[in-house]
Amino acid sequence: AYRDVDPAPFEAMARWVNDQGGQVVRLGDLNATPIPGTIPLLTDGDSFLDQAHAVARSRFSVMTPSGPYGLASGLGTPQATVCAIGTFGAHRHDDVVLPRPLRAPDGTLHPVNADHDLGLWNETLVRDLVMNDGYTAETNTETDLIYVAKRMWGETQDVPGWRQAPPPLPSYTPPNRYSVPAGPAREVNVLRL
Hints:
Helices cover 31% and strands 14% of the residues. It has helices spanning 8-19, 48-57, 69-75, 112-117, 123-132, 142-155, and strands spanning 25-29, 39-43, 61-63, 79-84, 96-99, 102-103, 136-137. A 3-stranded parallel β-sheet has the order 3-4-5, with helices on both faces.
């Protein structure tokens, strides 16, 4: 209900990305509705690592609030959360969130921006409005989704295609000793705020 989205507007966004020379990989479960212009990487629960690898190497990620969307921030991939039901999903300074429109029972659009300004835009509010108060959670429009894709494309211009795998982490062998008083075993960059 409040997390479900109409896949149709995502076809226009996929087409725009493809027209720029990009590829769109669709993550989800095997029951997901096909979206033309995307490469389906759908899972029945046993290909999580394949999905994580695709997200890790992606130029950017545009996802709805679902299982895989948390991967992008954790793997350092620029992230846009669309059809958002709160601000959760913007974990890094350059991540963006596009709230989903809510339609009131009388047909008017609910003032999502006002809720956000008051600190009230969150999953609990959206769930209550949809489940208890007769509101309808709508999917972002084709125009909105293409705007997000253009923004993410522009912000990642320095990435010509699939991101290269990061260099290996330096190896670290902790010293075979205890120190009293306890202190860091290696140099740590501590921020002073």
